[in-house]
Amino acid sequence: MLLVFGPRSATYDFGPSHPLTPRRFGPGIDLLRAVGAEPGLAPEPAPDQELEWCHTPAYLAAVRRFSGDPAGFPEAGIGEGGDCPPFSGMHESSAAVAGGSIRAVEAILRGDVEHAFHPGGGLHHAMAGRASGFCIYNDPALAIARARREGLRVMYIDLDVHHGDGVQALHWDDPGVLTFSIHESGRTLFPGTGDVAEIGRGAAAGTSVNVPFEPGTGEGPWLAAVESLVPELAAAFGPDLVVSQHGADSHAWDPLAHLRVTTSAMGAAARTVDRVAHRWASGRWLATGGGGYDPYRVVPRAWALTWLAGTHREWPIATPQDWRSRWADDAARYGQSPVPTTFLDEPNAGGVVDAWQRAAESRSTEVAGRVRHVVVPRLLREARDRGWWDAASIVPATGSDPSALPAAGIPSIVASVDGDTWARIVLAPGVIAPAAPAEAHGLITAALTTGARVSAAIRGSVVVGLAV
Question: Architecture of domain 378-467 in CATH?
Answer without folding.
Answer: 3-Layer(aba) Sandwich (3.40)
